[in-house]
What we know:
Blueprint: H1 2-38
Amino acid sequence: MNLSLEPLKAIVSIFINSFLIPLLIWRIFFYRKSKEENK
Length: 39
């Protein structure tokens, strides 16, 4: 039972790294861009 849970944790962490981090970078980029347009 424990053995089959480990690959799942790895998949979840890969998913978080490939989705949430780019999303965060995109939000920061978009926020800075909209700030520049407001000037």
